[in-house]
Every structure is written in C-alpha cells, then in structure tokens.
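This section describes the prediction task in plain terms. A model, or a person checking by hand, is given the sequence of a single protein chain and must write out its three-dimensional structure as a string of tokens. No templates, partner chains or ligands are provided. The sample shown here is typical of the held-out split.
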Amino acid sequence: MKILVSLLIIASCAMSAQLRADTAAEVRAVVVANIEYTNKELAQDPQRISSKGSKEFFSSGGLLNEINRASLDNTFVAFKGSVKHIDVTVLVEGEAAVAHYYQEAVMQPTGSAAVPNYRTRVTQAFVKEDGAWKIRAAHWSPLVGGAGTSQAVVK
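The expected answer:
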C-alpha cells in the first residue's frame, strides 16, 4: 500500500511538472507566433489581446494605456522583427503566465518615421481564454542605444 501511495505521489508530481512545461512552451510559442504574424501581415493581431483588454506601457513612453481588440490600429509600412531570450514564469498552470523577452525590429509604423534600430525588453502577462493564450498586460522598455517607436502617445 505504501508503495502504491508513493507511486501515485511521484506520478502526480511528474504530471504537475509536465503541465508547467507545457504552459511555458505554449506561451513561448504564442510570443513567437505574434511576431511572425506582424512580420507577415504588417499589423499586430488584435486577437492576441484578452477579451477584457490589456493595460500597457509602450516603449514610446507616456502613461498607462488601456487597449482592446477594437482600438488597435497598429499597422506598418515595413516591419521585420525578431524575439529572443524568452523566459516564461508560470503563475497558475494552464491559466496564467508571464513572459519576459527581448525584441528587435526594423520598422516604419504607418504615418510615422522609420525606426531602424528598435530594441526593447518586453514583459507580458498572459491568461488563457477559451483555450488560447491572450495578453492581459504588458510593459515595453527600450534599451539604451535602441529606439522606441516613433509615436509619442496613443491617440
């Protein structure tokens, strides 16, 4: 009986570790998919945002922005970006996680000047909604020597 209980505990711990690994892998994949979408479509996918919206500090500075899927009009004349060093902290397995990563891009937002050296650190809080990971909050912090976007605030 003790052996059976021990085996059940070990199996439960292994399953818990696997769920954390799956959550982290899923969120990393979403971060990569979001940048790939922007590279291909020259726009950010509005569906990446939570149905409840997202509170965000942008790399261009300014105050806290509250965005939702309908308010996004981030399009680009040109965009070629990449992400790296993605680290995910699982807060609640299968429900909430925070991703930290580094993003680089050469871009020109529609109606703005080109940004040839966009480099920023990103923190995004993700929640799982209807089986998909969505952004609920974010902070974009430009690196010294890199530029933020060419816009000063969101209109």
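For orientation: The radius of gyration is 18 Å.
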